[in-house]
Amino acid sequence: MNEIIIDVKNVSIRFGQNKVIDDISFQVERGDFIGLAGPNGAGKTTLAKAILCLLPLESGTITLFGQHGARFNYFSKIGYLPQKNSNLNSIFPASVEEVVSLGLLAAKKIPKVITKSDQSKVRKTLGELGILKLKNKMLSELSGGQQQRVLLARALVSEPELLVFDEPSTALDPASRNNFFRLIRTLNRKKGITIILITHDTGYIGNYANKLLYIDRRLVYFGEISAFCKPKKGGHFFEKTDNHIIWHQHN
């Protein structure tokens, strides 16, 4: 069995009177590429934020890299790409190089200073993603696809072992979306980075992820996409079009 890097046990989360996550359990193995899917209001982003230790639990436990979530302090192991522009406005007055360097600050002690070694890491990451030539550009000057690569570079520059994406392709055109998904699949397969990707596009994610985590406040399904996509197994969970697309991709 592969190494377990995330262990979610009987997790429930409540906002006021509303229970938004109800008794969910699953384990993520090193090297997994998991598509986290479900209808609107299913609790996908809430669950992701709980895994990242950004939300309190009503009950249950989450263990990250063998450490209890409440005591977890190895955040340089995790890269997080939230919904586009949710925490970094595209008109923010900073160059690409400056934006990416922000990804190194979490692991630094005060005073948090970017060194020459850090600058080398930033440029290496930009080069790996094919956007080194953009390093002096302002974020506001870039296309949607280029901005996503910059934000991915910010998440990657600390050399994380886990990447969490929240609807990363929402604002991208089809060509940029394809390029972005192929890029993160390469990171998963060649560098062994574990990926959790929230998506509404249940048909499309079957091209890239090896596992599906489908929730609707409770756990509906967790396992291999190829097993779920057989009509008798998972057909009643998805719209017919989505299930038809996924099933044909894996058969």
What is the subunit organization of this protein?
single chain
Distance between the termini: 26 Å
Number of strands: 10
Helix coverage percent of residues? 25-40%
The strands making up the biggest β-sheet line up spatially as 6-7-8-3-9-10
CATH architecture of the domain at 4-89 and 161-249: 3-Layer(aba) Sandwich
Number of helices: 8
Low-confidence stretches: 239-251
CATH topology of the domain at 4-89 and 161-249: Rossmann fold
Describe this structure in words.
- With 251 residues, this protein is α/β, with parallel strands linked by helices.
- It has a domain at 4-89 and 161-249: 3-Layer(aba) Sandwich (Rossmann fold), CATH 3.40.50.300.
- 30% of the residues lie in helices and 25% in strands.
- It contains eight helices and ten strands.
- It has helices at residues 44-51, 96-101, 116-128, 144-156, 174-191, 225-228, 231-234, 240-249, and strands at 4-15, 18-29, 33-37, 59-64, 67-68, 78-81, 162-166, 194-198, 211-216, 218-224.
- The strands form two sheets. Strands 6-7-8-3-9-10 form a six-stranded mixed β-sheet, sandwiched between helices.
- Strand 4 and strand 5 form a beta hairpin.
Quickly list its features.
single chain, alpha/beta, Rossmann fold, 251 residues, 30% helix, 8 helices, globular, disordered C terminus
Question: Could you outline the blueprint of secondary structure elements for this entry?
Answer:
Elements: E1 4-15, E2 18-29, E3 33-37, H1 44-51, E4 59-64, E5 67-68, E6 78-81, H2 96-101, H3 116-128, H4 144-156, E7 162-166, H5 174-191, E8 194-198, E9 211-216, E10 218-224, H6 225-228, H7 231-234, H8 240-249
